[in-house]
Amino acid sequence: MTADDHIVFIVDDDERIREALGELLDSHGMHAIAFESACDYVRAHKPDVPACLVLDIELPDINGLDLQRQIADRDHPPIVFITGHGDIPSSVRAIKHGAVDFLTKPFSDADLMAAIHAAIAQDREKRAERAEIDVLRQHYLDLTPREREVLPLVVSGLLNKQAAAELGISEVTLQIHRRNVMQKMAAASLADLVRIAERLEIPITHSRRVGGN
Fold first, then answer.
1. Are 34 and 12 spatial neighbours (Cβ–Cβ below 8 Å)?
2. pTM of the full predicted structure?
3. Dist. CA 152–CA 156, nearest whole Å
4. Distance, CA of 127 to CA of 135 (rounded, Å)
5. Please, are residues 32 and 22 in contact by the beta-carbon 8 Å criterion?
6. Long-range contact list for 68-71, CB < 8 A, 24+ apart?
């Protein structure tokens, strides 16, 4: 991991904590930006790289758990909570809503670094998955309107003649559209196309599935 392929955001109102965490991360070759309030963090420009948010619970403007809830519907880095006033209900709430870890001060450098590495790895994986979905969505947008009608019929398991009858076209024409769908969606097989359709959450309106009778 290099200092330019990730970032660690630190939100803590204690300047000594911010400085100590910054020095710790720097000693591990990690890039960090520190904020003293949730508002400063939310307003800041954030580089489009894998990241982790090290978030204090008690902040001057908002509780860290409330910030977690507010940004839950946005693309945000995995959170590692740190607090000097930990309690079981807070830790349960934090983890339940997706936090990677909940560390009570004083915590060890090793525990914090392990949590941060896990968070960045998680964010890297999610970003890769989103990038793959974006490619699949672009492939789907490249389909013609008719091909978008053919796709759900094909992945539902209908025979060519059944799908053709559903659309009121000839079986030969259906086969041409089906071939085009496979090529444009970069599907290596019907099973692959089914998986792609599931990832894109394309509604399947017919009950017959691949492999059905």
1. yes
2. 0.77
3. 6
4. 12
5. yes
6. 68/94, 68/97, 68/98, 68/99, 69/97, 71/42
Read off the amino acid at residue 128: A
Distance CA 64, CA 58 (A): 6
Ramachandran region of residue 161, left (φ > 0), alpha (ψ -120 to 50) or beta?
A: alpha
Whether the CB-CB separation of 71 and 48 falls below 8 Å is answered with no
Contact indicator for 52, 123 with CB cutoff of 8 Å: yes
Encoding tokens for residue 148? 């978008």
The domains of the chain, with CATH numbers, are: 7-129 (3.40.50.2300), 143-200 (1.10.10.10)
Phi, psi of 102 (to 5 degrees): -135, 100
Rounded Cα distance, 150 and 166, in Å: 9
List the pLDDT tens digit at each of the 213 positions of the chain.
555 689 999 999 999 999 999 999 999 999 999 999 999 999 999 999 999 999 999 898 889 999 999 998 888 999 999 998 778 888 999 999 999 999 998 899 999 999 999 999 999 999 999 999 999 999 999 999 999 999 999 999 999 999 999 999 999 999 999 999 999 999 999 999 999 999 999 988 775 544 443
